[in-house]
Amino acid sequence: MNKRASSARSTRHGIETPLLTVDPVLFTYHEKSLKVLLVHRSSGPEEGRWGLPGGIVDIDMDDDIEATARRKLVEKTSVQPPYLDQLETIGNRARDPRGWSVTVCYTALIGHQACARHVDTVSDVRWVELGAAGRMKLAFDHREIIDIARERLRQRALYSISPGYALDEEFTLAELQHLHELLIGKTIQKRSFRRRIEQADLLIDTGKKRREGGRPAALYRLKPASSGYRFVRNLEAP
Amino acid sequence: MNKRASSARSTRHGIETPLLTVDPVLFTYHEKSLKVLLVHRSSGPEEGRWGLPGGIVDIDMDDDIEATARRKLVEKTSVQPPYLDQLETIGNRARDPRGWSVTVCYTALIGHQACARHVDTVSDVRWVELGAAGRMKLAFDHREIIDIARERLRQRALYSISPGYALDEEFTLAELQHLHELLIGKTIQKRSFRRRIEQADLLIDTGKKRREGGRPAALYRLKPASSGYRFVRNLEAP
DNA sequence: CCAATAGTGTCTATCAGACATTATCTA
DNA sequence: TAGATAATGTCTGATAGACACTATTGG
Fold this sequence. Notes:
The structure is a homodimer.
Chain A: E1 19-30, E2 33-40, E3 50-51, E4 55-56, H1 65-77, E5 83-92, E6 101-109, H2 112-121, E7 125-129, H3 130-135, H4 142-159, H5 173-184, H6 190-200, E8 203-210, E9 217-222
Parallel strand pairs in A: 1-6
Antiparallel strand pairs in A: 1-2, 1-4, 2-3, 2-7, 5-6, 8-9
Helix pairs in contact in A: 4-5
The structure holds a DNA duplex.
C-alpha cells in the first residue's frame, strides 16, 4: 500500500488513526443579524485564514468530546455557551491537505452580551455576520460546516425555540420572533408566534419592560426545559 | 501527566489520537417486530459478547467515514442498506476499558428479505428482536447506542416515512402503519396515516396486490425522494 | 352467508395564517 | 395629539383524531 501524505497518527499496534478535532459553530444574534464566531489562524495549517474556534481533542485534558468543544469555546470567549448540540461528524481524506482527518462539529449559541467584552478585547477572535462569512475564504471545509449548522438551526426554528439561546438572557418576543424570521427566511405572523409560545409555556415573564419607541415590551427569559421542547406542528417553511 | 492504559495511538508529532470506530445500528422489520443486527465477537476486546456490526476506520480503504459504515455492513450482510443516516458520535475515556475511544454511529435500515439468506447462513451474525437485545449484556456501550438510534427512529416516525426503508421493497400500507405504531408506541388512526401519505405523494402504487385473509392489499414502493420528506405536522406522541 | 382485512366518508378539534383592532409608551 | 411599537380578537383553512361505514377477498 502506498504511503500517503497524511495527518494520521501511527502506532506500534499497526493501526493508524486520523487526526481528531472538534469544530463548534458558535452563533449569536446582534443588531438584527446572525453572527458566527471566527478565529484567525496565525500558525499551523491554513495559516492566515479565518476558521472555526475548534481544536484537537486532547485525551489527557478532555473527558469526552463535548468537553473539547466546551474547552475551545471557553478559550476563545471566556464563557460557557448555554446551548451546545452535536451537529455532524465529517471525516475523509480530502478535507485537510495533510490527509485523512475527522472533525466532530457542534452548534453552539450564546447571547451577545455574555461574551462581547472578551471578544472585543482580542484581535484574533471576531463575530462575523453570516453573509460576510459566506463570502470569505475560510480554513478547511469550515464554510460548509457553517452552512450545515445554519440549516440545522433553520429547522430548529420551525419547531422549537432553541434559537432563543442566541439572545441575551432577557429578551422581548419581538426579538425572538425576528431571530426566527431571519433563520426561516420569511416573516412570521405575530399572532401565530406568540400563541404557540404561550401555550407551550416555554418562557418566564420577568415582569420587567424594555422601552424604545412605542409601547414598552415585556422581557422574558427561557425556561430551563425549553430547549428540548418540540412543537407538534411546524411553522411553514419559506 | 500520568500514563493511562489507553487504546490511543501515539505519534512522532506528539499528538495522541484515540481509536476511531464506526458503529452502525441496522434495523429491519420482520414478523411484526423490530430487529437489530448483532455480531458475535469471537476475538479482541469484549470477546464472547454480542455487539454492533462496527469496526475501525481504515484510512487506506475508506474515503470517508460513511464508507467505513457501508463496508462493515456489506461485510456482515453482503448488501448495501438503502438507508444510512449519521446518528451521533460518542467519544470519551470510559466507554472502552482500553482507554479513550471514539465511535461514529449510524442508523441503517434494510428490508428483511434483502439480507435474510446471507444472515441465516452465518452463525456469528443475527437479527435480534429489540426487546431481547435490551436484555442482553452487549459489548461496550452498544446497548445505549441502540437506545439512541431507536429514539431517533421514533422521532422520524412522527414526521417522516423513512422507517419504511426497514420494509421489503414492496409493502402494504398496513405494514408501514404497524411499523410506525411499533416505533411510536401507540396506535395510529388508519385514516390519518393514509391521508398524509397520499397527500405527500411519497409512494408508488405497484399495481400489484397481496392477498392474505381478507381483501387484497395494494403493494407500494418508496419513491426515491421520500426519505427527505418532512410532514409539517407531526403525529401525536404517545 | 360469515369472517377478515382493505379502504373511504365525514365530523370534530386544534392550531397556523391573515389581518384588523386595541393598548401603552414618547415627543 | 401623532407616531411608534406591543399585545389581542377573531375569522379562515389545513390537517390529525375518532369512528362508522363500504369494498373485496376466501371459505
